Amino acid sequence: VPEVSVDVGTHQYTIYIAPGSLTHIGQRLSALGEITGALVVTNPIIRQNYGELLTDCLVAAGYTVECIELPPGEATKSMEWAMRLYDHAIAMGLDRKSCIIALGGGVIGDLAGFVAATYMRGVPFVQVPTTLLAQVDSSVGGKVAINHPQGKNLIGAFYQPNMVLIDPLTLNTLPQREWLSGMAEVIKYGIIADTDFFDVLSQENVASLSRNSAKIGEIIKRSCEIKAAVVNADEKETGLRMILNFGHTIGHALESATGYTRYTHGEAVAIGMVGAAMLARDSGWLDTAKVECIRSLIQQYQLPVHFNGIDINTIVSHLYHDKKKEGGAIRWVLPRSIGQVAITKEVSEEQIRAVLADLST
Ligand SMILES: NC(=O)c1ccc[n+]([C@@H]2O[C@H](COP(=O)([O-])OP(=O)(O)OC[C@H]3O[C@@H](n4cnc5c(N)ncnc54)[C@H](O)[C@@H]3O)[C@@H](O)[C@H]2O)c1
Ligand SMILES: [Zn+2]
């Protein structure tokens, strides 16, 4: 079983990745010791596909298990739903000898993790991510959060899980668009940290990966390793961790300029990565051929490399709105080559506008 071990400060935990690993939950949980019960947090679709299997395995291993279903969608990452989880935890008598298990995508993981971090000042937390994005990104790194009407992820904490269990077989039921969206983050890891990984991805395609759970398992493992390495070096996001934002500056501006309805997060990041590569080229960091390699890999995974019908002034104002909140110039994460990025503030508004015009069709 491929295992990725993550060390953050005093806290060590393991990310287990294997097709079929959902059924190892009981055995893995026993290895953590001291835990006797579990509250599984999921949604109806995921419960139908995997919830029974997971709870059956837990019950067979001797755990007391309760399961709570929340509605799918970003709106569930709210204080209201967190409160319902607290209510449920109190009603079932959940204590520090029990764990909260997040079975789902990033929405479930972030919300259940936030509740685990705060209920009784913290109870054991296990992530069983079921979207590609959650498997390679949100379940690694220990950021948990809920949304506030004034902004996404405004209320949150750094709270590391006790373990992460990834079963690539769960991806078989994931809608194609969600699958591709997760691939954008996978491609990001190649560009920011690993040339060889970028080449591996170039040799595969959507069909070869999505139909081969062992291969996708390897890809997930490498992605987790890269994210874990970055997070280990910078748990509380003071410096290095910023490189994970590659492609996200323009990506976030596109998402907010379109009211978070037009693009999935990964699609917006895909366009943002092409934009960042072009800015790197214009700064003399990257040659045109490498920009093309990046663009063509993104297209190979059926992700967008252009946008249309969005006013460039609107995008620019969203870019600078974020900048104002941070109280300084935009810090761009730009590739110096494929496999290495650096941070710079030396990008003019004129350069940005030129790149946005190129990205717009
Ligand atoms: N904590 C972090 O570091 C971090 C990082 C990135 C993103 N996030 C957060 O993650 C969230 C997005 O996560 P997401 O992309 O996983 O979206 P999501 O959790 O909304 O899941 C996407 C959709 O897929 C469905 N689904 C999940 N697994 C399935 C499966 N195996 N089969 C069929 N359907 C399935 C869900 O019901 C949902 O409708 C956002 O709230 C974002 O802020 C957090
Ligand atoms: Zn992202």
Structure characteristics:
361 residues; alpha/beta; 7-stranded mixed sheet; two-stranded antiparallel ribbon; 14 helices; 11 strands; 49% helix; globular; binds nicotinamide-adenine-dinucleotide; binds zinc ion
Write the layout of secondary structure elements.
Blueprint: E1 3-8, E2 11-17, H1 25-32, E3 37-42, H2 44-60, E4 64-69, H3 79-91, E5 98-104, H4 106-118, E6 125-129, H5 132-138, E7 143-148, E8 151-158, E9 163-166, H6 176-193, H7 195-203, H8 206-210, H9 213-233, H10 248-257, H11 265-282, H12 288-300, H13 312-326, E10 332-337, E11 340-344, H14 349-359
Parallel strand pairs: 2-9, 3-4, 3-5, 5-6, 6-9
Antiparallel strand pairs: 1-2, 7-8, 10-11
Helix pairs in contact: 3-4, 5-6, 5-9, 6-7, 6-9, 6-11, 10-11, 10-13, 11-12, 11-14
This protein binds nicotinamide-adenine-dinucleotide and zinc ion (ZN).
User: Which bin fits the share of residues in helices?
Assistant: 40-55%
Alpha-carbon Rg, integer: 20 Å
Q: What low-confidence regions span 5 or more consecutive residues with pLDDT below 50?
A: none
Span from first to last CA? Answer: 45 Å
Oligomer: single chain
* Main sheet attributes: strand count, strand direction, barrel closure: 7 strands, mixed
Number of strands: 11
Sheet-strand content, in percent, reads 15-25%
Count of helix runs: 14
Mean pLDDT: 94
Strand order of the largest sheet: 1-2-9-6-5-3-4
Shape, principal axes of CA atoms: globular
Summing up helix and strand content along with how strands pair, one would put the structural category as: alpha/beta
Which molecules are bound in this entry? nicotinamide-adenine-dinucleotide, zinc ion
Q: How do the SSEs run, as a string of H and E?
A: EEHEHEHEHEHEEEHHHHHHHHEEH
